[in-house]
Design a protein that fits this description.
The chain is an alpha/beta fold. Helix 18 links the parallel strand 10 and strand 11. The chain is 36% helix and 13% strand. The protein has three domains: 357 residues, TIM Barrel, CATH 3.20.20; 174 residues, Glycoside hydrolase family 3 C-terminal domain (Rossmann fold, 3-Layer(aba) Sandwich); 380 residues, 3-Layer(aba) Sandwich (Beta-lactamase), CATH 3.40.710.10. The chain is built from 32 helices and 30 strands. The strands form seven sheets. Strands 7-6-5-4-3-2-1-8 form an eight-stranded parallel beta sheet. Strands 9-14-13-12-10-11 form a six-stranded mixed beta sheet, sandwiched between helices.
């Protein structure tokens, strides 16, 4: 391409003369759109003039250049250092890299440059847009869904903080483009939406969030890149609207941002015939667009940036050097990402010598940039602190802010079957089908917090037989949960499911009751008009998936509205407000006014306990007001650091079984009138009339006042003279005669429970009405419950409680379902079973009863117990299912005994001075719960709406390790929790 020939040469000369007359002389504070406090404009101007006097023509040109920087590329570093030394370039724009490396390079570049460098970044959704290891805030369309200016301002403020930590002065944001074209391949989720007023309001909030906190905002992509179908990175888009339309729609947000003092504007590589009729003329290189419209007609006097000059929207038509010269003559102040710095400087220098570019133009441009540098950088740039930089960039406040935006952006677009959120009677019937993912997504693992869900992922189906077999499986399910795993957010035209996947999904939508969950571009939903129930989540990162699953399950309200039109039935502002909250929410402690740092004191107590051999590991869950704000696992399954404790691991609950299993059918039978509290045992069990075991009441069993002995070492009667399991009662293999498994390779005779029962009935009964904590009480209660129900207690619990509550990790005899790797062992038994007890109930009596007893045998994790106790705090309701009447909960959870602290089945805090307290002294008397021999406990506090679940295997390797009680470890942790949550 011949440089400056023919028509173009004449045009350039005309433009230059015109520019010299019209360019504003930047010499007063009134013209300066981005003032900083405590800085004198005259001072800045004086400094700029003094620096300008020292610069050669090439160095003045260098000040106009902002070059691309990559923190991980050594050759790029050498090129930048050369450009700083050779031409005194004005700044850098950082792209892909790592935060610490970028900070080191920024310090190096600033130290090397005799004039402060402007450091910039495309950080539309925070510096994580470009840097690894750093949080990314939601994209602008997510804010369009949320439609919350306050959250947008707070996010702008948070991004400004990130920029400051990295020594960045300019953020190329907000995107002020109105995304009115669903086929837009490049703006898309980067826009706030299609409505000019909403775009403007949110863009202003973002701009102010940045600039109120010292970071220049840059409105882009002038005059509006929203209604295009070409990516300017790849070619030159054309914006065909007339000037009336441009002024009414595309230019509206820019006009408002300019009037409110946005510091910068970026000009897009767009051909706009209504503004410049020259063929193949990008707006970024057009005098008519940059000077006549942006500066003169719209009155913008801030810094004008080109879009990146290495994009094909300009490089397809012009050569390096030629591009930068044209951009300068068009009226731009900063030439962003020149392809070749040397060519750019050489070409513009030649134009200065030839009179195409005047010295005065160059001086005005360079001086303007220097004044901005004085305000944004200062003559002596601050050194960026490297220590803990990534940690500072990822401060917990940022994640809390992101969470709030995500929650508010999630949208319920259709709910024709009233199935979102699903209630406890049918949510287990949901069968998830993931379209287009490979690994198990966070959405699935979050669903598993609420219940048991299978995992099936469908990628590109090419095999017809596989397609048919999948359909055969899925059409047999009750409800389908179809999850679109994340459409491409960079190009809507190549986004979302493949045609075959789309056909597959539409067939399912037509033939099965389904919920469609879409992660990514809302425009994809236009392909699925048959969907009757739609949850839209704009993005696909882990936090969006985490809260998207919670929204589906009814843990958070849903209020987002479409900021764009998807179809006739899903138009702008579509969205159903769903306020119903029916399940536990997993959230940041910030939501409850607790700074996460305060919770570190809990870590200290637990880690100190592990180090001192109190227990090898544990789970701790804390929930307040129906919100789980702490759910953490510590240590290992044993003192050998082999298997770390995970939140999905299940522990032997020991006596917590009493309130998490046996008490539930007791309460239900009481509520239905089948088990009156003052009814006698003899009314429910076939016992000799004169038996002392027939006389106590149900309430006496529940309060441990039946007069029964505390515990009977049943196993001892089944040992031989060598203290080994007697072969008359045990075999090392399963058989019809020895069907009861009590541990690995140890099976008891089938009538073992009858033998135990007879043994119980031979024990003396003490005076009724006196408190003696006894396991025997709950062994009786289980037998009574099963007699009334005429079914095994474990089957009843699973059907009536655990399944609908989503307690899929709660069960007796867990090895039938759960891998041993998920079950911490409870003891090395050297007195009965002579084995490591893992997955079998620790309590010998419960083991001899087949692992299912009224006093022990249940295994669970902290998360499942939280659901159960949240139901109790909710007065009997969870997952939109009522399990108990409120008065039943009140009857069983208040103190009932006259001689002890006990409620009906539940333990209570101590109320007498000097009495042993199973919980902390801060715990109000309204609280109820229970502890377990293996080192477990669960407490619910109605006054503070607080749930405290602690699970450990303190009995491993030796049950006689009683440090947890001697040191009152559980009470210490609970006391710390009350201090943290405050009054």
């Amino acid at each position: 391409m011949a440089f400056l020939s023919g028509f173009r040469k004449q045009f350039f000369r005309f433009s230059t003369l015109f520019t010299c007359f019209l360019i504003p002389v930047f010499n007063s504070a009134q013209n300066f759109p981005f003032n900083q406090k405590n800085i004198s404009f005259q001072q800045a101007e004086k400094w700029a003039d003094s620096v300008l006097l020292t610069l050669s023509t090439e160095e003045k040109i260098g000040q106009l250049l902002m070059v691309s920087a990559y923190s991980g590329a050594s050759q790029n570093r050498k090129d930048i250092e050369w450009a700083i030394k050779k031409y005194k370039i004005g700044g850098v724009i950082f792209f892909k890299g790592e935060p610490t490396h970028q900070a080191i390079l920024t310090n190096r570049y600033q130290q090397l440059s005799s004039i402060p460098l402007l450091v910039s970044m495309d950080a539309e959704w925070g510096v994580g847009m470009r840097l690894d290891s750093v949080i990314s805030f939601p994209k602008q369309m997510s804010f369009g869904f949320a439609n919350d200016s306050v959250l947008m301002y707070e996010t702008g403020k948070a991004i400004a903080r990130q920029c400051k930590l990295l020594g960045i002065h300019i953020n190329f944001a907000p995107v002020a483009d109105i995304n009115s074209n669903p086929k837009n391949p490049v703006i898309h989720l980067r826009s706030f939406g299609e409505d000019k007023y909403q775009v403007t309001r949110l863009a202003l909030a973002y701009m102010k969030g940045l600039q109120d906190n010292g970071i220049m905002a840059v409105a882009k992509h002038f005059p509006g890149h929203g209604d295009t179908e070409t990516d300017s990175h790849k070619d030159l888009p054309v914006l065909m609207h007339d000037t009336n339309r441009l002024k009414e729609i595309e230019l509206y947000p820019f006009r408002q941002l300019f009037s409110q003092g946005v510091g910068g504007a970026m000009v897009a590589h767009l051909r706009i015939p209504a503004l410049d009729s020259l063929p193949a003329m990008p707006g970024s290189l057009s005098y008519q667009v940059v000077t006549s419209w942006l500066k003169d007609k719209m009155g913008f006097s801030g810094l004008v940036f080109t879009d990146a000059l290495n994009m094909k929207g300009v490089t397809n038509f012009y050569e390096a050097g030629d591009i930068e010269l044209r951009a300068l003559l068009a009226g731009n102040d900063i030439l962003l990402c020149p392809q070749d710095v040397a060519k750019a400087v050489h070409t513009i220098s030649k134009a200065v010598k030839n009179g195409i570019v005047s010295d005065s133009l160059l001086n005005v441009k360079a001086k303007k940039i220097l004044i901005y540098k004085y305000f944004l950088v200062s003559p002596n740039p601050a050194y960026i602190q490297i220590s803990h930089l990534t940690e500072k960039l990822n401060n917990p406040e940022s994640f809390w802010l992101k969470q709030r935006v995500i929650e508010k952006s999630i949208s319920l677009l259709r709910n024709e079957d009233a199935i979102i959120p699903p209630d406890g009677k049918r949510f287990n019937d949901f069968f998830p089908v993931y379209i287009g993912c490979n690994d198990k997504p966070v959405f699935q693992s979050t669903l598993e917090l609420y219940g048991e869900f299978p995992f099936l992922c469908v990628n590109n189906i090419s095999d017809t037989s596989l397609y048919d077999s999948l359909l055969n499986i899925l059409l047999k399910k009750n409800y389908l949960l179809i999850v679109l795993c994340g459409s491409n957010t960079n190009n809507v035209n190549n986004s979302g499911p493949t045609p075959r996947q789309t056909e597959f999904v539409n067939f399912l939508l037509s033939n099965k009751m389904s919920v469609l969950v879409n992660f990514g571009s809302p425009y994809v939903l236009g392909r699925f008009e048959k969907a009757r129930n739609i949850l839209q989540v704009t993005e696909n990162d882990s936090l969006f998936q985490f809260f998207g699953a919670q929204a589906l399950m009814g843990a958070i309200p849903v209020s987002g509205k479409l900021p764009v039109t998807v179809s006739k039935t899903m138009a702008f502002k579509s969205g159903i407000k769903q306020d119903k909250v029916i399940r536990l929410k997993y959230t940041s402690p910030f939501e409850l006014g607790i700074h996460p740092d305060k919770l570190k004191s809990i870590d200290d107590i637990i880690l100190h306990s592990i180090d001192n051999g109190v227990f090898p590991g544990c789970q701790l869950l804390l929930a307040k007001n129906g919100k789980v704000f702490f759910n953490k696992s510590y240590g290992y399954h044993t003192y050998e650091p082999v298997i770390k404790v995970k939140s999905t691991d299940i522990y032997d609950l020991a006596s917590v079984t009493k309130v998490s299993a046996t008490l539930l059918p007791v309460m239900k039978l009481y509520e239905t009138g089948k088990l009156p509290l003052e009814g006698k045992i003899k009314a429910f069990l076939d016992l000799p009339a004169n038996s002392n075991y027939a006389k106590p009441s149900i309430s006496q069993l529940l309060t441990h006042e039946a007069g029964f002995v505390a515990w009977i070492p049943f196993y001892e009667q089944f040992l031989n003279k060598d203290k080994l399991p007697d072969s008359r009662y045990f075999s090392d293999t399963f058989s019809e005669n020895y069907p009861v498994q009590v541990s690995d390779h140890l099976f008891a005779v089938k009538n073992i429970e009858n033998i135990i029962w007879k043994s119980i009935l031979t024990q003396p009964v003490k005076k009724q009405g006196e408190y003696v904590y006894s396991d025997i009480d709950f062994i009786f209660l289980k037998k009574i419950v099963e007699n009334i129900l005429q079914q095994p207690m474990d089957k009843y619990l699973e059907k009536e409680f655990y399944s609908s509550l989503g307690m899929n990790n709660t069960l007796f005899n867990p090895l039938k379902k759960v891998s041993p790797d998920r079950i911490p062992p409870t003891e090395i038994d050297n007195y009965f079973r002579y084995n490591i007890i893992q997955g079998f109930v620790h309590d010998p009596a419960a083991a001899l009863m087949g692992g299912i007893s009224g006093h022990a045998g249940l295994f669970s994790n902290a998360n499942d117990l939280a659901k159960l106790f949240q139901m109790l705090l909710n007065h009997g309701v969870y997952g939109n299912v009522r399990y108990f009447k409120p008065e039943t909960i009140d009857t069983f959870t208040k103190r009932y005994s006259l001689v002890s602290r006990r409620a009906l089945g539940f333990d209570k805090p101590a109320f007498m001075p000097g009495e042993y307290n199973p919980c902390s002294s801060n715990t109000p008397l309204s609280a109820f719960g229970h502890t377990g021999f293996t080192g477990t406990c669960v407490w619910a506090d109605p006054d503070n709406q607080l749930i405290f679940v602690f699970l450990s295997n303190r009995t491993y390797p030796d049950q006689y390790n009683n440090l947890i009680n001697k040191q009152k470890t559980r009470q210490q942790i609970q006391e710390m929790v009350y201090k943290i949550i405050g009054p």
